[in-house]
Amino acid sequence: MRISIRHQLSVTPPPGTANAVLQLLLTPQSGPTQTVESWSVEMEGIGNAGGFTDAFGNIAHLVNQSRPEGALAVTAMGVVTTTDRHGVLGRVGREPVPALYKRITPLTKASASLYGKFRGSKESRLDVLHGLMARVGELLGTDEPTAAQSQSQMAADGSQSQSQGNVGEGKPHVGATGYAHAFIGGARALDIPARYVTGYLVGAEDGQTSFHAWAEAYDEALGWIGFDPLLQLCPTDRHVRLAAGLDALGAQPVRAVPAGDGVRDVEVSVEALA
User: How far separated are the first and last CA of the chain, in Å rounded?
Assistant: First the structure.
């Protein structure tokens, strides 16, 4: 599927800031499931930005802003062609060892009610992971939200609307971020490497689209495999992969220091091209 994307964000540093630094994780890479035809990131100072590959294999940019006034606009846009591989990325080069993604973070602590039934399972790891995805759906619900709901529940700064406590306890009101964190927490509790992924999703049947999040888990035979617990499926050609990390905090598309009023999504347009 050929997909056009335009993502506009706004960052507002605190008044009187002498110097602001922004880290951008807004550049997708070509890989087994997608080919980036064209892509650009636009904002004041991007021409002098430092580009590098971060510890998780993401393309990152550091942008300095001297004495910024008011909101800073960031726009990422381009065209990506995707291929449905039933979620299988395999083993991708220039990435950290999978064991790095066994680390449990505050956002990925899971309740035993989520993963307990899979402890000591004789099933294959792939079957366990599909069972875990279904279990997340049982605990959190499986209704697919509209694009607007998904965006409001997962802000560009990685924050989410979620009740307090470990993921998997009760039925908190969460978006894609909460579902991904629940799956990742359960996988790591079972000693399975799992990571948080940001990206874009071509909309449901009503045509709505959103900035999205899902998870990837590691299988010794197949390598990395994507799981979208909110939609209860492995990523398809509707998904465009952007960045990965231990959780939403580490993979947020824009991080600013000092933080100020945070990062806000202004507009996300994702559509399939003929």
Answer: 9
Query: How does DSSP classify residue 233?
Result: B
3-state DSSP assignment of residue 8: strand
Distance CA 67, CA 55 (A): 29
Q: In this structure, how many other beta carbons lie within 10 angstroms of the beta carbon of residue 48?
A: 9
SS3 238: coil
Which one is predicted more confidently, 24 or 17?
24
Kindly give the pairing relationship between strand 19-27 and strand 239-245: unpaired
Q: How far apart are CA 227 and CA 216, in angstroms?
A: 6
The number of beta carbons lying within 10 Å of the beta carbon of residue 260 is 17
Question: Could you tell me the CA-to-CA distances from 235 to 32, 61, 159, 229 in Å, in that order?
Answer: 12, 26, 22, 10
Radius of gyration (Cα) for the chain, nearest Å? 18
Alpha helix segments (H runs only) across 1-124:
112-115
Per-residue confidence (pLDDT) for residue 253, from 0 to 100: 96
What is the C-alpha to C-alpha distance for residues 11 and 74, in angstroms, rounded to an integer?
8
pTM, to two decimals: 0.88
At position 110, the amino acid (one-letter code) is A
* Interatomic CA distance for residues 253 and 26, integer angstroms: 6
Indicate the length of the chain as a whole number: 274
SS3 call for 194: strand
- DSSP letter at 167? B
pLDDT of residue 265: 85
Burial of 32 (C-beta count, 10 Å sphere; 0-12/13-18/19+): middle
Distance CA 271, CA 4 (A): 5
Q: Is the pLDDT score of 7 beyond 70?
A: yes
